[in-house]
From TrEMBL:
Protein name in UniProt: Glycerol-3-phosphate dehydrogenase [NAD(P)+]
Record-level GO cellular component terms: cytosol
Species for this entry: Streptomyces lasalocidi
Residues reported to bind NADPH: 14-15, 35-36, 52, 109, 143, 258, 284
UniProt keyword ATP-binding present: no
Gene: gpsA
Job of this protein: Catalyzes the reduction of the glycolytic intermediate dihydroxyacetone phosphate (DHAP) to sn-glycerol 3-phosphate (G3P), the key precursor for phospholipid synthesis.
Length: 336
């Protein structure tokens, strides 16, 4: 990988920083944009991100700035890693600063509330670029594990396979193994819906429902993700890949997952307000469960687990009642 590839990463949270490390380790010159100047200064002076990845030493070829124009300058890849619901407003401010031929890369796993747009669609809309200039990185990539350089595979998706291959080369390291995929719709849906299923599994874990419940939720969660994907034109095989099953298993098994942990706290009996108060980082499923359900309704797709998560998180339904209702739905064949 040539040293001359430049990457800007907008968002110095856990995943923005960890993926910035991956790019730097693959040989790119990386500039992180941080919202707060103090964090940018801390990254540059201590070579760590004390707020999001304490104790992890950052590579020399990664630096930070609070100036978006400086971050964006001459970037071959402009990586976006802010909470999904803030992307539109942020990108509107950054769009005039972007390097002319830069490829925009979404790391985000959410669906916009109201518009039900996937993150790549928001990027196309706001930055006014064609879909061949927008890529997505997704898969089982818990930031803390990647930052410790523990091995993981990932998916780099773009409708233009040549662009996906360029990004693949730019982020391929001995511990990070990206595969290309041209099914952007499936890859993004896999990432966004797994957060909702992660909440459901967390709730079940918090209630002490056991591993059979977990296996059942993961599998039926994947079934409803696939149904939605099919209705939206995705390739169903994408959901048995890294962006589907891979990410779902990592999220639903790990205490590092914010969505899983958020659900566990709810399942243990914390109120929504108490759970929000102890959650310091972005748990995308909390908001995106509503936009995913909206998408399902627009496409006439039944998503009972997603519906249950919305009822528990946003309508105050007690988890015990929700479990009873899920289990007493009408009997049906498995492939439904
Ligand atoms: N952390 C992880 O393991 C992974 C996260 N993701 C996805 O990456 C995206 C970013 O997540 P994380 O970095 O983990 O979140 P985080 O909560 O660790 O960091 C979010 C970053 O966005 C900034 N931010 C918050 N509100 C903002 C606003 N209104 N405007 C501008 N910046 C704002 C924060 O200051 C912080 O730098 C999410 O969509 C998440 O689903 C994807 C794969 C792995
Ligand atoms: O997307 C992730 C792992 O691939 C991270 O999941 P959480 O956002 O639930 O922490």
């Amino acid at each position: 990988m040539s040293e001359s590839v430049r990457a800007a990463v907008f968002g110095t949270g856990s995943w923005g920083t960890a993926f910035g490390m991956v790019l730097a380790d693959a040989g790119c010159e990386v500039t992180l944009w941080a919202r707060r100047a103090e964090l940018a200064d801390a990254v540059n002076s201590t070579r760590t991100n004390p707020d999001y990845l304490p104790g992890v030493e950052l590579p020399e070829n990664l630096r930070a700035t609070a100036d978006p124009a400086e971050a964006a300058r001459d970037a071959d890849f402009t990586v976006l890693a802010v909470p999904s619901q803030t992307l539109r407003a942020n990108l509107a401010a950054w769009a005039p600063l972007l390097a002319p031929d830069t490829v925009l890369v979404s790391l985000m796993k959410g669906v916009e509330l109201g518009t039900t747009m996937r993150m790549s669609e928001v990027v196309e809309d706001v930055a006014e670029v064609g879909r061949d200039r927008v890529a997505v990185v997704t898969g089982p990539n818990l930031a803390r594990e990647i930052a410790s350089r523990r091995p993981a595979a990932a998916v780099v998706a773009c409708t233009d396979e040549a662009v996906a291959r360029r990004l693949q080369a730019a982020c391929h390291t001995p511990y990070f193994r990206p595969y290309t995929n041209t099914d952007v719709v499936g890859c993004e849906l896999g990432g966004a819906v797994k957060n909702v299923i992660g909440l459901a599994v967390g709730i079940a874990d918090g209630m002490g429902l056991g591993d059979n419940a977990k296996g059942s939720l993961i599998t039926r969660g994947l079934a409803e993700t696939t149904r939605l994907g099919l209705a939206m034109g995705a390739d169903p095989l994408t959901f048995s890949g890294l962006a589907g099953l891979g990410d779902l298993v990592a999220t639903c098994s790990s205490p590092l997952s914010r969505n899983h942990t958020f659900g566990t706290n709810l399942g243990r009996g914390m109120t929504l307000q108490e759970t929000i108060a102890v959650t310091k980082q972005t748990a995308e499923g909390v908001k995106s469960c509503e936009s995913v359900l909206d998408l399902a309704r627009r496409h006439g797709v039944d998503m009972p687990i997603t519906e249950t998560v919305v009822a528990i998180v946003h309508e105050g339904k007690p988890p015990v009642v929700a479990v009873k209702e899920l289990m007493s739905r009408s009997a049906k064949p498995e492939r439904h």
